[in-house]
Amino acid sequence: MYGTQSKRDLSFEIQSQMTILRPSIHARRANIVVKFQDLYGFTVEGNVDDVNILNEVREKVRQQGKVWWSLEANKAKKKSTVPDSYYRDLTVAVEGKVTPATKQIDHDLPRTFPGHPWLDTPDGHAALRRVLVVYSFRDSDVGYCQGLNYVAALLLLVMKTEEEAFWMLAVLLENVLVNNCYTTNLSGCHVEQRVFKGLLDKECPRVSTHLEALEFDVSLVATEWFLCLFSKSLPSETTMRVWDVLFYEGAKVLFNVALAIFKVIICCLLILLLLNTSVVRDLSQVSSLQMKELELLTTHHIGDVLNIIHNTTHHLFDPDELLTVAFDKISFMTTTNITRQRKKQEPAVMAELGQRLRRLNSTNMDVNTRLP
């Protein structure tokens, strides 16, 4: 199970009889039953905001594997009300067209999982290029953003067909993730980074304070995590398990996983510290010690922090361990709370981006006036 256990002893059967006292919860309960029966092929009853219900969903996702991904892709295609030949037709229509997006895609193809036995081949590059180029024409506001190449590449490896990979990319960008994460100014991504920084302050205050003292901006690592959806940082099997939960619960899961990575780093470094002191010489004693949020311990330089984070993420081969931390050791977050934090951060982000654009325009005007 991947979430914190509720301390309420009231059974779901008793809750369902409390329609007068809790009508809004009863209504949401009915909706969640219909949702999972209709879209995902299994039934889960209960209040959508109850952590126990989310636990049950996560466990069913784990048992079901990747079968539901194809169902999700087909659902997205049907909801788009486009002909069955949409992807094939658009692939033909955009063939040979050159745009800034296609140029950047061509530049990024050989840098996407280099050395992979299929992706790093002419056939793999061609399939990845088609998915990315076609989507860049489907959504001109997004076009192409670096990071999508890793997401689309992993989808190609998981989905049965290239077309399904395209539709799953559409599901992610249009239904799961927040708006404007991949637009030109990355405003949505900037908002997510500010929200994450606030959550890190709350969940790992000593780590956050220490990183600030080092003048380390967490967006140096978290931007890649959020844009690539961890596909470039975590082992592929761990990433797939993260995506399983992401598709069900939405973009708030990215915050859980990002915070969990810092929690795992703290725990690993604490163990190393204890094993190298007189406090403890036996790993079996560590579990009885209270895990403290230390200051990434011995780091004194930004490079040290980056190395520790990269080494940790690249070796998180056990998805159960990471997801257990993400949902057991992190305070329960609702989509409503995250949305409230996003709205709070949006004005500052837009003001900052506007100021940056004005500086850029001013610089360009100065350059143009100096030209003969």
From TrEMBL:
GO terms for molecular function: GTPase activator activity; small GTPase binding. Keywords: Membrane, Transmembrane, Transmembrane helix. The chain crosses the membrane at residues 253-275. It holds the Pfam family RabGAP-TBC. Residues 58-250 form the Rab-GAP TBC domain. SUPFAM superfamilies: Ypt/Rab-GAP domain of gyp1p. InterPro entries: Rab-GAP-TBC_dom, Rab-GAP_TBC_sf, Rab_GAP_TBC_domain. This is Rab-GAP TBC domain-containing protein.
